[in-house]
Design goal:
- The protein has 2 domains: 138 residues, Rossmann fold, CATH 3.40.50; 61 residues, Winged helix-like DNA-binding domain superfamily/Winged helix DNA-binding domain (Arc Repressor Mutant, subunit A, Orthogonal Bundle).
- It is elongated.
- The protein has a 6-stranded parallel sheet, sandwiched between helices.
- It is 49% helix and 14% strand.
- The chain is built from 10 helices and 6 strands.
- By secondary structure, it is α/β, with parallel strands linked by helices.
């Protein structure tokens, strides 16, 4: 049986790499490609597939506040039989744990060999988990039963407040207005918080905040 795969990433060259890696594998066929979350959901609604390979930080032009976990949760809810493999640059343990807990079966870092992707797709199609070396080592940093350290412990009270409001969907401008602070101050506090946490994108910040129970 040929495995049907839908691939999603907002970078065309990454999509080319995914297709090349899977085209080289036996009995694996890429049946659809998407460059944003809304297109991915449209394709899944109209194209039969077994596995979706998606970037974690997928843009959504219709719901710009959405993060990768919300997309995964929607796919899990609407297509419960679909196996999901995430291709990402993230290595933060709490975010990777959130992916696994959300039902993602495969996690491959984009810096790893794309040859691992076919193995992850095959494993996921059989309901087995496949973690690339980066994800595996990152998750070993923390015992699965060990609770997350409080986010407030690593941030100043004002940085924590900014992250909390941002994770609940407020823009930097809206946060500045609500807290009566200069927008440049809010931007700096958000940037400093992201540096302390170890994330580089808004999607990763959303996911980290959700893993700590802050996001609505």
């Amino acid at each position: 049986m040929t495995l049907r795969v839908v691939a999603a990433d907002d970078h065309p060259f990454v999509l080319l790499g995914i297709r090349a890696a899977l085209d080289a594998a036996r009995r694996v066929s890429v049946v659809g490609e998407a460059t944003c979350a809304s297109d991915l959901l449209d394709i899944l609604g109209s194209t039969a597939c077994d596995v979706v390979v998606t970037d974690f930080s997928m843009p959504n032009p219709y719901r710009p506040g959405d993060d990768g976990l919300r997309l995964i949760e929607q796919m899990r809810r609407d297509w419960p039989e679909l196996s999901i493999v995430v291709l990402t640059t993230l290595a933060t343990p709490s975010i990777l744990r959130s992916l696994v807990e959300a039902g993602v079966l495969g996690v491959i870092n984009k810096m790893e060999s794309m040859r691992e992707l076919a193995a992850a797709v095959r494993a996921a199609s059989k309901g087995r988990r496949y973690l690339g070396k980066v994800a595996h080592e990152s998750l070993l940093i923390r015992s699965p039963n060990q609770p997350l350290a409080p986010l407030a412990a690593s941030l100043t009270p004002r940085q924590y407040e900014v992250v909390r409001l941002f994770s609940q969907g407020l823009s930097v401008t809206e946060i500045a207005r609500r807290l009566s602070r200069d927008i440049r101050t809010i931007s700096r506090q958000k940037r400093d918080a992201m540096r302390k946490i170890g994330v580089q994108t808004d999607s990763a910040l959303f996911a980290y905040a959700r893993a700590h129970g802050l996001a609505a």
